[in-house]
User: What shape does this take?
Amino acid sequence: MRVKLLQANAFGGVADFWFGPRAERSKTRDSLGLAPETVALVTVANLTRRKGHLVTLAALSRLSPLLCKRLSWLVVGSNDEPDYVDELKAAISSSGCDVRLMGALESQQIRDVYGASDLFCLTPEEELLEPAQEYSLVYLEAAACGLPSIATAYGCARAR
Assistant: This one.
C-alpha cells in the first residue's frame, strides 16, 4: 500500500495559489479607478439571493454619506439569478453607494482584486443556505490574500 502525505497549510486546505503573487496593488487599484484613499470592500460570490448581497448593501446604505463616499464595494461573481440581479441593481441605484458588479473573473484576476482591496465581505442569509453551503472557503482564500472578513453569523463564520 502506498501512502501519500499531503501538507496542510495554515488556512486548512486553501490552495497554495491564493498565497501566490498578485499584481502590484497600486496598478490594480488604478485599473479599477480606485483612489489611494478609497476603502475597497470585496465580495466574491455568485449573485444569488442566499449569498446576501442585499444584506451587505442595506448595511452600506446606513453609513454616513461622508463614509459612503470613501468606500467602493467590488462584487465579483456570475449573475446566476436574473430576477435577483435586477432587484440588486435597482437597490444599488438608489443606495448612494459606489457598487461595482464586476461579473465572473478568472482566479488570477480575483487574486489581484483581493490584493487591491482592504476588506472581504460575505453576508449570506442563513435560512436560505443548504447544510453543505455552511462552510465557504472564500473566507479563507481572502485571508490567504491578507484580507480581514466581515460576515454574518452562520456556519463557519459563526463565533463558537
In short: The chain is about 30% helix and 15% strand.
